[in-house]
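Hi all, long-time lurker, first post. I run a small reading group and we've been trying to get comfortable going from sequence to structure in the token notation. Rather than ask abstract questions, I figured I'd post a concrete chain and ask someone more experienced to write out its structure so we can walk through it together at our next meeting. Sequence below, copied exactly:
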Amino acid sequence: KMYEDGFCNIFYEDIDSALDTAIDAKRSGLSKTIGLVGNASEILWDFINKGFVPNIITDRTNTKDNYFPSGYSFSDALRIRRADAHHYKNLVNHTLMTHVKAMLELQKRGSIAFEFGNNIREKAYDRGLDNAFNIESFIPEYIYPVITSDKLNFKWIALSGNTEDVFVIDDLIMSEFSDNKDLVRMVDTINKVIFQKNIPARKLKLDSEEAIKLFKIVNEMIRSEELSGAFLIDVSSFKMIDNSDYFKQEFITEDNQQNIIDKIIEENQGSSWVSINQYGNTNQYYNLSENMILLDGSKESELNLINLINLKNKM
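-- Answer (accepted) --
Happy to help. Here is the structure in token form:
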């Protein structure tokens, strides 16, 4: 599916062909995304045994439900899962431990290793791997510098369902922010790689000044009917916590539910839509809220969005 959607240039089912292609691409100075079909736990140990040390390693498998045990075909794993769920879970836990141990070994050999938010470190730690947290999280290592640069996460969704409206905004970004090479490159890459999915939405990081400038123009284009309909704008930011306080987080209980709800409402004044989301154990930060503004061409919706952007920027 990643190959069909354009996120992967080529894929293999044998490790030697994948490694040969990767090494050739590196020697030639080519950027190439190579997929290798297999179980990551087994593949990483194959890397180690072959003396291959990747520059960067991480993992995005959903450890809550979609993690498969090594040593079994896809169909055999499903059969065991149906026949004996307890045995299957033990197999998964063993594979998960082996996986994290391989990441730690490659880290020791020079790879940059980090968790990408699937909670694999805590899963391994809970099962007795005391040094699982020697692997860092991508949030403090890579996302925090972006957060502290005053960038906010923006999603805009064309309520008309018209993908062309999104492309119009892409062109607007390319022209209005041509000096921002990173932003221009990101929009250009999105159009080259995933335009065929025809999703009437975008997600980008912008600073508050860029966002206000962009959405003022977008609102005017909605009002003048240059765009075929209103947009739903989501404004969000990560909440950074000290990594040493990993096990000291406050979670929702009966006593503090109302306080959390009140705080979310307070922080999202003017939003057209405020929702509370719980993403389970797939991310250590347990995101709680999402807020959206309906941008419909009116001055009121524009002011609401500007107020929300400024509020989020101060948080």
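A couple of things your group might point at:
The beta strands are 10-12, 34-36, 56-57, 112-115, 136-137, 151-158, 201-207, 231-236, 273-276, 289-295.
The domain at 149-314 is CATH 3.40.1770.10 (Urocanase fold).
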